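User: Protein folding is very new to me. Would you mind checking the protein record under this note? It all follows right here:
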Amino acid sequence: MAETPFQTTSAERVPLVRGFVRTVIDLFHQRELLSLLVRRELKARYKDSSLGFAWSLIKPFTLLLIYFIAIGQFLGAARVIPDFAIFIFAGLTLWGLFSEIIVGGTSSIVTNAGLIKKVYLPREIFPLAASGSAFVNFAIQFGILLGAVVVLGQFPLSWNLLYIPVAVIVASTYAIAIAIILSALNVYLRDIQYLVEVATLVLFWASPIVYSWSFVVATAERLSMPWLEALYLANPVSVTIIAFQRGIWLAGSEERVMDDGTVVAAQPWPVDLDLRLAIVFGVGLVLLVIAQRVFARMQGNFAQEI
């Protein structure tokens, strides 16, 4: 009798954590192949392109310009958010990593259908390869962000710098977990990749990227809805982006006097941000383990379905 997509074979009936650890070990043994797939992803993305990796900067710079003019100048956000360009580019940089891992990972199994049909290898390697190329683009954009911070004399020499790697690790943990499970679902439901585009658009505006956390606090106070802050921070992407901003955006932690003489208070930060990050990271690790085990149960019919 043919297996259904969600049917488990006897070989797959292993404890949750043990099965996850076994897969991690298999992937570690395939690290050279993973590196090769990442390079292939990057070459395929910029194949026959004259500008090459410059395209990884054109989109975020275009978004930066649009939001800086539309939100910062026309709507006046730059008057209340100091160093608005650094603030918004910081959010776009981490968001770009998160969204690119999910979008690229979702279609990774279908995109590599020919290879999956020919050889056996841990199939989680394909969404991980998409994640690897996303990290390369993130490194390029983060380098530009660091350069801008140094040029403006706003490099944050404090313990807040530790928020940057922590935020990147937490955000990538969630993104990889989501990418793994969506890559499997996309094999059976091709609408998933289109739903991801809509979901990421909604999640973008539900995160403090083009507006600051102070705006959320002020809105909650104005509407007399103190629970709104807690609801907003239930989104792990919001927590990681706020942490990333706190690490790289020095102007947000200082009282500033604008050119017109307006005094802008230091931006507020969520209470117990460290604890929130720890909790969010713990939940993300659990989600990653569950996502991999669901993937393992669904991968049996990949070759037939694609």
About this structure: Residues 16-44+54-305 form one domain.
